[in-house]
């Protein structure tokens, strides 16, 4: 039941509200609902049932789809400009649509962050390759702190207090 709602199996399938346990116990017609409390005593039962559920629902494990998801995240990062939170949420939806069991939150967050960082570095490399030597000099100059100043021109611009850029200084 938790797979349908959460997209993953709980470590302890009985770690749900009591009303849910009552409902689940009532489905197969279990007369004594306390029997449900003994469900996880046999570890093999849990793994057997998870395997049955995966087969019946056509669910795939995250590790099987991890590379495919990483490719999707890379494409999404490259084309959308969305931040990590939006891509994380979209990735969860992408996995649900493809019947992929969701991993732990931190595992998915690490994958999204790593792929986004890789994509960002690839973008920077592409943009850097388009610069002329003169444009590089101008950009490098923005980082220099002039004598008597505490911050660079770029920092002043970032705060909305910078000088106006002289377009004539930039050679194309």
Number of helices: 8
Sheet having the most strands: none
**Ranges with pLDDT <50 over ≥5 residues?**
none
Gap from first CA to last CA:
62 Å
* Structural class by sheet pairing and helices: mainly alpha
Question: What is the share of helical residues?
Answer: 55-70%
Based on Cα principal axes, name the global outline: elongated
The counted number of beta strands is: 0
Q: Give Rg in angstroms.
A: 27 Å
Order of secondary-structure elements: HHHHHHHH
Whole-number mean pLDDT: 83
Tell me the strand percentage band: under 5%
Please describe what this structure looks like.
The structure is a single chain. The protein is mostly helical. The protein is built from eight helices and no strands. It has helices at residues 2-6, 18-26, 43-57, 62-80, 84-97, 105-130, 133-143, 153-158. The radius of gyration is 27 Å and the shape is elongated. The N and C termini lie far apart (62 Å). The mean pLDDT is 83.
Could you give a quick summary of the protein structure above?
The protein is an all-alpha fold. The protein has helices at residues 2-6, 18-26, 43-57, 62-80, 84-97, 105-130, 133-143, 153-158.
What labels describe this entry?
172 residues; mainly alpha; 0% strand
Write the layout of secondary structure elements.
Blueprint: H1 2-6, H2 18-26, H3 43-57, H4 62-80, H5 84-97, H6 105-130, H7 133-143, H8 153-158
Helix pairs in contact: 4-5, 4-6, 5-6
